[in-house]
Amino acid sequence: MERFLVEPALFPRRISGETWGTESVTIDLAGDRYRIDGLASWQVASLASRYGPRMNFVGAAALSGTATAGGSGRHITSGDAVATLQVFRAPRSDFREIDTRGWEYWLDLQWDDNALAIAGMRLMARVDLASMRGGIWTCVDDPDEFWGLVENVLRPILAAQLLDRGNGLLVHSAAADGFLFPSTSGGGKSTIARMALDAGLPVLSDDLNAIVRREDQWMILPLPFTGDLLERELSATPQRLRAIVAIEKSTDNALRNMPAAAAVSLLTRCSPYVNQDPQRTDALVSRAAEIAAAVPRAMLAFTMGGNVWPILNRA
Amino acid sequence: MLDPNTTLTLDRQVRFRRFEDEGIVINQKAAEAVVISEVGTRLIELADGTRTLRECAALLSEEFDAAPDVIEQDVIRFAEQLVEAGIAAPS
Question: Could you say which of A269, A282, A289 has the minimum Cβ distance to residue B19?
Fold first, then answer.
């Protein structure tokens, strides 16, 4: 917290403050709806520019000119949302100035008593994960920065929601043609996703994918969170999870079996946010084990530009 | 070097789970999940804070049909790695 906040001890303990406005929207992620209240019109427009048809306008926002800027403009009642966030003003003096030259963005997450506190650049957020109600405090008044700030809060909430209630898992991975390639940063997710696109295969995301059980099978659901690929390059159609594939760049294309423990370990390491919460470790490992037991597992060594899909399809 | 009469206890922030022949150790402090070999998995199961490393090695040498002195050296080396990684503590 000290990295981002002038007075960490003054981090908000209650979901209260002065909202930026009175408008509300919802954003659809992995089959659930996340509501954001207390928005000014320019903040609604900022979120609409990022989330487009995934966003719905609630109340005043549905009737204002903002609704035509993007999104479906469908009216939503508050009961539809699995989580509700309010956006509050915070004085600029609460936040440290950060020299971002050569800086890789990161967040400070603290899990405590089923609550999550987040500190980041010009950002404080607190979410009660039992009630799924939370607050975002910020001084950001730039539309181009605002949606990213909200996204930084939505991602860990989505991870907790999928694990706790959604019968699923948020996984750092590339997903293409039903194959899930979990990997941490720099592990080849975007490379394999690009190879899939070049082969004419549908790609969901090259960064974060939601794995969710639907009846008797595990599905990969599309999310708007991408790495190097553009969202318009990605498929919006859910894919049945065909296999979990660990990837390793190599000089040859080769496929071998991946033991269950390795698959569980990989999924656990690649489940961002919730893998930092000690209270969720057991649930996380159990969920990873459930997924690993349900589908084939493989380790793929691949060459840049090689065609790995025939090997994968034979597996 | 750890004494063969040392007992080993997993850190309270570490979770261990067996999957088929292998196990994984999750270090909650570092959000790490490490795959442990078949023998290492069995050692972690045996090292319950009451058995010494020597006693664990004796049981392992029976189960895996290996020379006790060789197994004991391997057990001590592996135990030292667990301690260095903050996964277990000697007692």
Answer: A289
Question: Can you tell me whether residue A289 is helix, strand or coil?
Answer: helix
User: What is the average per-residue pLDDT within A3-26?
Assistant: 92
Note the pLDDT tens digit of each residue in B66-79. Answer: 998 899 999 999 99
For tokens 């979901």, what's the residue?
Answer: A15
Long-range contacts of A94-98 (CB under 8 A, 24+ apart): A94/A5, A94/A6, A94/A7, A94/A10, A94/A124, A94/A137, A94/A139, A95/A4, A95/A5, A95/A6, A95/A121, A95/A122, A95/A123, A95/A139, A96/A3, A96/A4, A96/A5, A96/A6, A98/A3, A98/A4
**Out of B22, B28, B31, closest to residue A261 by CB:** B22
Cross-chain CB nearest to B28 (options A262, A266, A278): A278
Which pLDDT tens digit goes with each residue over A205-257? 999 999 999 988 999 999 999 888 988 899 999 999 999 999 998 988 899 99
In chain A, CATH 3.40.50 covers 168-314
Query: B63 to chain A nearest CA, in Å?
Result: 21
Contact B24 A265 (CB under 8 A): yes
More confident: A196 or B13:
A196
DSSP codes of every residue in B35-73: EE-HHHHHHHHH-SSSSBHHHHHHHHHHHTT--HHHHHH
What residue ranges define each of the domains in chain B, with the CATH number in brackets?
Answer: 8-85 (1.10.10.1150)
Please give the CATH topology (third level) of the domain spanning A168-314.
Answer: Rossmann fold (3.40.50)
Would you say the ipTM is above 0.90? no
Ordered alpha helix ranges (H), chain A = 41-51, 60-63, 143-164, 189-198, 260-269, 281-294, 309-314
For residues A104 and A309, the model is more confident at A309
Inform me whether the C-beta atom of residue A276 falls under 8 Å from chain B C-beta atoms: yes
